Structure formats: C-alpha cells, structure tokens
# Entry
Amino acid sequence: MSTIFKKQRKKKTNEHLSQSNTPGSSAPEATTSDMHAKGSTAYERTSDWTVLFFNCLREISEASEMLAPLKSTSMLLIRGLETTMHNNRSAWEELARKLALHHTTINGYISQLEVGDRPSSNASQDALKKYAEALSAILREATASADVAGTPNLKKTFKRIGDTQIEKDRIAELSRDADFAHRQFDEAMRIIMARQVTELQQQLDRVRAEIMQEIGELKSRNDLPDFDEPFLSLVRGQDLDICEQGTRSEILGQIRIWAIDEQIKSQIYWLNDAAGTGKTTIAATLADEWLTNRTLAGRFFFSPNSAATSSLDQFCSLLAKDIALQLPEVRQVINARIREVSTACLRFSQQFRRLVVEPLKLVSDKRNLLLVIDALDNCKGRDKLLSELLLHLPSISSVKLLLTSRPLPDITDILSTSTLIEGYNTCLLDVYNPSYADVTIYIRKRVPKLEGEYVDLIANRSGGLFIWAATVCRMLQIYRRPSKLLHQILDSQSFKGLDDLYLQVLEQALVDKAAHSLFMNILEAVTISFQPLSISSLQVLFPENDKVDLFVQDLCGVLKDGDPHRPIKVLHPTFREFLYQADRANGFLVRTTNAHALLSSSCVVLLLGVLKHNILGLSYQKSAIPTNTHIENVNDLVEQNTTVALKYASSYWARHAAASILESDVQEKVMTFLSTKLLNWLELMSFRGCVGQCIQGLAQLQTAVAMIENRSDLQNAVSNSYQFALQNQSLMTEAALHLYTTPLAFLPKESFISERYQRAHKVLIPVVTSAASTKWSAHTVLTGHTGHIEQVAFALNYTRVVSRDTDNTLSLWDIESGSLIGKQSAGSVKGKQVAIKHFTVSPDGEEVAFVTKSNNIYVLSAITGALSGEPIDASAEEILHITFCPNRRRIITSSISSTMFNVLRLWDLEAQTTVGNPMRLDVPTTCMCLSPDGTMLVSVSIYGHCPGKGLVIAWSLEDYSQVVSYTMSRVGYMKCIRFCPDGSYFATWTRDGTIHLRLGHTGERMLELCSTRTNDPVDDVVISPSGRHIASYNFGGSTVYLWEVKSGLVLNHHTLVGHEMDIRYLLFSPEGDRVVSISLDQTVRVWNTHTGEGLQSFFTGYTGTIMLPELSQDWRYLLTVGLSNQINIYDVSHQCQGEEKPGDERSFAVPVIAFSPLGDIFACGFTEYVSKPYIQRWSVETTQPLGEPMTGHTNGVRCVAFTSDGQIIASGSDDCTVRLWSSSTGNALWTIPTEMNTVERIAFTFTGEVMVLGSNHKIYVINTKAKNVVWSTGKENSNSELVLSADNSKIAATCDNGVGIWDVLTGKQMARCDISGRIFHLSFHPQRDLLAICSYTCIYLWEFNSGQIPSLELQIKYENGFQLGFTLDGKYLLYGDLVWNVQSKRPRKLGPGDIRVDLGSYEQSLIYRDGWIYYVATRGPLLPIPSHLREQFFDWTAFYNLILVWTQDKLPVLVDCTPFFH
# Structure
C-alpha cells in the first residue's frame, strides 16, 4: 500500500507562507515526512513563524500600509511566544500578555481607519517604526531562548544558546522598552484620530441618515434580499471547480469558436447530456475565461440547494446584478431598476425585459457578449425562462447564451424546434465508447500523489462519468486511510456506477457502524430540510449527536460545506435521488416521512426549551405593554436573542409535523407544544415578521390531522390554535406581547387554548363577561378590516381573495390558509396619503388594479401582494370605473374630464401611457363591460336632462369608433351589462324589467326578455358558459327567472320560487346544467336549468347575515361578508356546512346606557324604533339580564339615568315621554308626558327630588315628589346638551348659537355666551364658576360669573365616545386621553408622564380608539381589541375601569381592565 501514493516531498518555506498569508492565521503544520524526527515540530513552527515575522517587519520598515502589517507582526510574535518553549516561561507569558493588549489597541486603530489608510504624520511613522524595533528585539531574545533541536539551516538563522537562561531583568527591560514605544505610538495615533473625529462623525451621521432612509424605503417595499458573498458565489458559480488543463479540449474549443465567430448566428449553445457528465464544470470554466477577457455579460448557476437558486423568484434581479458588475456602462440603470422591480413584483416576463433585455440593448459595445445559464433542469418554472429567451434574444444580436441542462422532455420540446440553438447534438459521454483521456488528466491533477496505474484504473472504472471520478478524488483527499479506500474501490467487482460509489462514500463516512442511526439522522436532516442547515444548526437540533461535525466532514465527497456556520449543500442532485429510492440506497434509504418526523421532533424539542414569554427581554413594568413599532431596534433584538437553528425550527416545525403527523411521537410532541408554547411561538414569529408562516403552517397541520382516527383531542387543539392565530393575525402583526392580553380574554370559554393559557397569564388578561356565547367557526374567517367591506373578489385561480373597506384598506388573502399576503392602506401606498376607492382583478387573476381618490392607478401582484411599478397619474380626470382588458396587459377607465363630460381611455400598464384615441361621451358612464376577446367595449350612460333614460354604446377597440348605440328606459346606477362567455352576444337590462340581447360583434338586436312581473327593476343577469341559458332576479325580489335561448329564440322559460327574502347572487355551474342562488334568507339553493326543478344544495344550513356573497366558478369556495367586517370562507369540497340558525339582521340602533351609582347594575335602551321598545336591567358581575324588560315606550329610547341613591331609573323616548322605573323590580312608577318632540337628556339632583330634562327645543325641571313641572324654557331654545353643577344649583345647556346657565330652582338665566357650531359636551368645574364647552375643534373655558365671553380655547378634534370632565379636585380637565392642568390661568397640556394624580375616581379614565383601549395616565395604548370584534366597539361606554359594548344581537360585553391597574 505504501507504493500507491508517491513519496511526499518536504514542503518549502514559501509554501508555508502562501498558506499563512492572512494576518492572524495559524502557523502551518509540519509535513508528514518530517514528523518522525525528534523535535521537528517545534523546529517547523519556529522556522515558519520567524520567516513570517521578518516579512511583516519588512513591510513596516517600508512604510506601506503600516497598521495592518504591524497587527500581523504583533500577533505572530504573541503566537511565537506561546508556541516555543522557554526558560523563565512565566516571565515570557507575562510579556506575551502585555503584547496582546498592545495588539488589541492596534486592532482598534485599524478598525477606525479606512482600508488602506495609514498614519500620515512623520511623528506617527517614527513611533510606529520604533515600536516595530522593540518587537524585533523581543524576537531575537525569544529565538535565542527557544529550546529546539538544531539543524544546519537553523544554525544559520539563530544563535545557539543552549540552556542559557535569559535573566528576568532582561525580560523586564524588553517589556519596558515595548511599553515606552507603544505609548509613543499610541499618543501619535490619538492625535491623528482626534483631528479626524469631527469630520468622521459628520460623515458617519450623513451615512447613517442615508442608510436609515434606504432601510426605511426597503422595508416599505418588498426589496431584494441582501445576499451574502457565499450565496452570490453559489449563484455565479465562483465556488465551482473548473476544467483541469488539457481536459475537455474539444468541446471547449467548439464553444469558444461559437462564442467569437460572428458568422454563427445561433445565439444559444445548448450543452445537454446526462447527469454527472461535467456540464457545470464546463460552464464554470468558460464563465471564468470570459470574465477574464471581459466578454462575460452575466451568469446564473441553478442549484437545488437553495430556494433562490432553484426557482425564478430572484433570477432576474440576481442575473441583472451580475450584468451590472460586468458592464459598468449599464450599472446605474440596472441598480435603479432593481430597486424599482424588487418593490414592484412584476411578472417574470416584465422583470426579464426590464432587468435583462433592455439594459443589454443599451450596451454601446457591439462585440459579442456572453451569458451563462447552467443546470436549467434544476429550475422550477423553466418554461417561462425559455420562452422569454427565445422571444427576446433575436432583438439583442450581440448577445449569445451558453445554456446547460439535462435533456429533459419539456426542455427538449421547447428548444428542439428553435433556429437559435447550436450544439443540440453535442454528446459529452458516449456510453458505448467512452473516452477516458479527460478523466485521466482530471484525476492526475486532483490527486497528484497517486501512482499512474491507479489513475488509469480509476478512469476506467468511471466509465467516462466525471461526477464519478470527482467523487472518488474528493474521497481520497479527505479520508484518513485513502490507501485502504482505494483498494476497496478497485477490488470490488460490483463497484461500477454512481450508486456503488455513493454507497462506498456512505460506508466510509460511517466508521462506527453502531452509530448508523445517528448518521442517518444527519443525512435525513440535510436532505429533507426546507432550507439548507449548517453544522452548527444541526448540532443545536441534535444535541445528543456528538458526531455531527465528523459525519458532515466525512461526507465531503458528496456534501459541501464543511464550515460550521455555512449551509450544507448536496454537491450533485443524483446523490439526493439515490438516497430517496429504496432499490438503490441499500441501507441508507431516506424515508421522507421518517425524516420529517425527525426534524419535526427536533424542532419542537428546541422550541420547548427556548421559547418563553417576552423572549426579547423587554422592560416595560412602569409603562404600557409596547407594540412592535414602539420597540426600538426590534430586528436587532431578534438577532441577539435567536439563533439560525431557532429561526428554522420556528418557521418549519409545523410543516415537518404535517408531513409526518401519522407518527405517534410527532402527535404527542405537537400536542405538548400547542399546550405549552403556542403563544410564545406566535410572539416570536410576530417579532420576526413571519405571521403568515404561522397561519400557513397551522393550516397545513389542520388538514393533516383531519386524517387521523381517534385523535379528536389533537384535532381540536390544532383547530383551536389555527383559529386563534387566524382571528388575531392582524394583532400579531402589530403587537406580539398583546397576544397574552385581550385575545385570551375573548376566547370561547371551553376552548383548548383558554383551558391551558388563561390561568398562566391571568395577570395580563382583562376580565371579559358577556351574555353572548362565543365559539370557534367551523369555516375560515378572515379578520383585520376595521371599516365596512365594500368590495370582495377572487384572484389567482381562486387561491386569493381581494377585499376593500370604507377605511380605504385593500387586503390580499391566501384562501387556503387564511393568511394575509399583502395590505395597502390609506397613507401607506408608496408613502403617499391616498384613499382606495375601487379595484379590479385581471382576467388571469395575477394582478389587481386599484384607483385612489387622487385618481392614481396602482397595480399589485396577486401572488405576493406587492405593488407593481410606478402609479399611472390620471389626476387630471376623476376616474369612475376601471377594468382589465382580457388579452393584453391593459386597462380601461371611465372618467369625468374637465373639458368634456365623460371619457373612456385605454391604458398600457407597461408603458404607463394611454393607447389610441379617447372615446368621448356627453353623458356620464354608469358601467362598462369588455368582450371576452377584448375587441369591443360596451358602456351604459344616463342622460342628465332625462333622468333614468340610458344610452348604450358599443365601441370598437381596434379603431375606437362607435359600432352601435341604442337607448334604454329606466337605467339605474348599478351594473347593467354582461357578455356571454363566448362573446357571441351581450345583455343589457333596465329598471323596468326588460333584458336586451345584442349580437357580440355587431351590436345588432337579437332578442328581448321580460320577467313575469313587468316593471320590476332587474338587479342582475348571468349567462351560462355555453350562452344557452340566461338567469336574472329583480331588485327586492325572491324569484329567479330562467330562459333557454338559441338562435334568437326562447326555447324554455322557468320561474324559480323558493327563497323567502331578496336574492343577492346567481351563478351557473361550469357545465351550465345548474344555477345557484343566494338570498338574504341566508340559504343557498340549486336549480336544474333544463327543468327548473330545485336540487339538493351543496351548502346546508345558513350562511349567517351576509353581504356581498361570491362563489368561485367551480363552486368550491363560497365567500360572504359578515356583520363584524369579517370575510367567511366556506370550502364546500371539505363538506363545510353553514350555521344551524339564521343570523340577525344588521342593527343600526345606538345603545343608551347608564350605570347605577354603586356600579352593580346598568340599564340600557336602544334608539331605533322596534315593535316593542324596552329598557333592560343588567348585572355588571355576570352581564346577565335582571328580570323582564321594562316596556311601555312606543318609540326608540333616547336616554336613561339613575337617581343618586340608585333606586329609580328614568328613561326618555322619541315618544315625547319620560318614564320612571323601580331599579330593583323594574316596575313602572310614573309616566311624564312632555311637549318635547323627543327627550334627549336626563339629570337628577343629589336628593332625586328634581329631575332636569333636555331636548332640542326646551328644558324641563320637574319635582319628582310633587310630580309637577317646576319651570321650562321657551320653544325657541335648543337644549340637546345639559349638565348640572357640582352643588346642583345651576344648569348649563346648549341653546340657539350658544350656551346658557340657569338657576335650578327659579329657572332664571344667569349667563349666556354665543358660540357658533355644534356643541357636544358641557362640564362644570367642581369648585369654580368655570364651564368647559366642547365643540368639534376646540374646548372653550368660560368664567361665566365674570360676564366675559370664553377667552381660552384648547385645540382638539371631536371623537365619538370621548367625554369631557374635571377631576374631583378640580386640578385637571380631561377629554378622551387629553389632559390639561387648569390650576393656573393658562391651562397647560400634559403628557402621560406628567400626570401625578390618581384618575381612578374619574369615570372616563378609559377610552377606546382605533382598535385599542387607552388609559389616560399611561403612555401608549393599554389593550387591543381583536379586529373581528372592533365593530362592536363603535358605540362604547366607559365607567371607571370598565368598558361596555354591545353585540349585533343587542347583548352586552363588559371589559374589566382592573388587572392592569394592579
């Protein structure tokens, strides 16, 4: 065996130097052949160290880049002192320690100076050289003291001293000299740094500002990730081997000729052959060669080891970056476009054109430029790339492309017929007559010590397959016993193909057969992980496996990289294929289910041990719990408190679990995790900005556990967890730490999460009591909209939902998981203040165009939710309607122009300009519709001089002329046009019940249809896919009208009856044999289109109260919009059923509420007229009703009030009466008729003997004991707001254009002031003659006894629910969360940190605003309200630590925030 490898020669000193060129690198090891000599190790180290030291010292003496060599010199000296053996070792170690401190200082100066900087003053250079001389003196003494074996060469370098000891005082002297020299150098450097510090600080401030601005812009966009150099090297093939000299000469020569020969017009050289034949090595060789001679335009090497290198997601941006690197001429253009496109998420075709094609066209040098795209077979979506290449390359004749791939059928089908292809029949490996010459050369280069006969044997065994030879060479280079390995390879008769070689690699790596299980764990994790894992991450995930590093290093023949912190990559896809096939792996089979179970368990175990509440360690004990945006440097904190392994585990544990959920161990770990760490996980993912991954992972897990039998507990746990995350995803995005607060409080009482988490986080949870029952929905519920949803639609082949609300928010949702993909809000669209008023979805569903109120048109990707390009500025006109063209990336708008009444325009989205001539009308367009082929546009307009009369015009989009026009009577402002799916005809309809059918291309009259109930307005018309059937329903009608038409004739007519309320939606099945109708009666009915008979519905039960129903064309998904601004998604394919009973109608009644003085009960009535108006008493403790409703009023209740002793409840109504009730029994006590048209305010004095009533006409003062009217004002007064003074002696009330003050007993008006505008609130100061008056924009402070008009104005903005009042001590005035100190003549506005008074005695210390509960004395929001519940908070009432709201079912919900005040 000793003859297999050539004898090793002793390495030269300069070889050591070349390996240790980097400052700070460790000294090279001694050669193997010299290891037998006694003392040679010390000799080698000392020799190499000494030569390196003097080389570095020479650099210092030549004053070139002074600091960096000095750093290397000092480091080498320290290592030398530590390595060599000395007498007086402790003294030398102390000197080494001191030099290490010097080294740290030098390193600090280097880090402060720019690369290449050096001290510029003579003083600093002199000091630097003196310090270097001191180091040299130490070196001479140290080498003399070294106790090493002598050699002739060593004697030439060192003076042999033998056992002579260096006296300690000599070492001390050296130390003092070094200290002195270092102090001089340090002082010189400090002077230099002091001179530079001001300018440097200014530069840093400017750079920091620019960086923060850029970061802000990048965060607002979906920018290209800032990939690190190792990743870019992977993409560009820079870490790949190149062909050894003398190999592949023939094919390289052919490609080189093709590249430079301008007579060869074929622009694509397609190098295709089987896996492992060396295509990638050839591509890397030529890319490197073309890079050197500056003909390379760009390169991209596809690989299955990374998502970014195995798809087209980042292809254009990464290729463009390389083009910019190679071609400075277009660098600026590309960089600008990368920023634009990375935020825009354009389609791939648009990205390719903008980032690759157009910049290459701008290159002025017309010499051949060469692109390299390798391993196309590893790319997902490669057909799109090939299509773009074949489409655009002919337009860039100066560009040629080297393309490599395996000859897969889909690639061959596309390229085999193209005239652009060269090298189609190139064959790298002739399996019948393989050539071994190139493989032989390769082996000799890679393993130069291998004897020739063995080189030939390996080459013959390779069969000409380079991947085989390369794997063997790597094995021989890294294995500890290469000779034994070589014999095993060559002696085995069955060792022929790649499978045998891979098997040998695995067997060699598995030295300890008893460790097979641990070995397979690592192999499975590396090959099955969703993202490449590093050695360090694997060590964290598998802490019990102490051989991770050893296994990976021993698998370097098939894996890369051995660096502990770099992701491990499988070198060739054939190895992964080998492991996954049972008939090939032979004991090393990777079973995907087992592998996923392994990683799932490892991830969960890691998360169980690491996750905790407040994982970032934030301190907020004396302030409100912070939201994510209020945490400084949250991203930095995440990096500091997480590892790569933790990030992987938190991102992918659920996906691994879903893929292996049938394993019982996985089931138990999932159950444990959800029972203990669910909230901690959601918190971490919120901080990481990965909320969507949570919901998608839980959605996959929910689908997987549904297949398990007899595990209802697990199914319930996963379902509850998914519903919790889904309902709170808006809050998770906004405030991670608030997941432990109100979301837990509003859980269903018997839910899996409430049972396991409410007690653990009790201190953070407000107490919520409600008479309304809560339960998890069986269907998906999308929450997050805060305004009423006005528009909803499907997109992207029914995998996305787009919605828009009255708060000008546009949301994009993933329909499978319910996760929020993207969101555009008012003020957030490219940083501009905009309001979104309408959107439309492209016919292919991939894009959404929306119009803002500033009349700009934006387009976003339905795939990613990111904006596409710059907006189209159409602000010169007011856009009324917008729709996509069906066959090109264009849109049509209908708008009102300043010069003409109405204009229809065609816009090209890529050019962002109008196309063709505007189509002008003299009347406004109410709706428009495009033909399926995009050649005709039909518009409907209403004549202004003749209300209801409509004009229909069919326009040709080829020449923008009118094809036909006709009038219709009674046209409404809703949609009234629809084309037949095949374009053969279109329908328009009117409010008089007539449907007009016209031929699609000519507009000629075809047929008119009328329902049996004439003159009823048609609300909508739908047409079957074949065009044979037409269905309609009338406005306010519950009947479906169905016609069968053919060749302009009505064959059948059916009237479909069955709904009990108005119909809101119709849709034909894809086959056209059925039609579905959805009604306000909350049922879904299906009808046979041929017979008109009712069929069994695919949806049983009730939809709940619905608005805007939508059904996917395949009838799989039903969307409805609920009362609380949520979107319900019913997946009919999963047998998702409706509710057991119909939901209530939307109630627009406003609750009027009063709490008893003791706070134990509250009374409530409603303002709307109901069949039986009532007041109900409720328990504060249980929110359950007390007794029967108190009835008697005949109209809506406007106000309620308690007497100060709580014994009597008074109610005022629109029926012009006031009624008094017993608060304990609810019995009626007294009815007081008034001359008011409504009673809006009631107030009692302390004793309850006097009751004050206010309306918009009069004030009544009533003696409740005598039951008579004491006094009243005249009808000319408007007194809708009133308040009693603290001593009950005065009444303040609004009157016509002002405020008046009256004496309670006499009715005498004591003062009056004039104030314009509406007044909302009044409040008396508890001690002074001061009245606070709240208008829409300010608060007036009126000293009413002075006779002066209000002179002080406090600026505010009125908000619903906010109250005005003084604190009991009179020091503070509060309005909502605004506080003023009113002790001085000039009130001072206070911040939360300035308030030093206990506001617990102030009833209105809690407020609700924009989805959050605030406490006046706390900085920031106190508690969030889940978005799906915010609709209920439209009318809220605060009472000390309580906030009371009402559901749509008129049931109370009481939120007690007391835990947060203790």
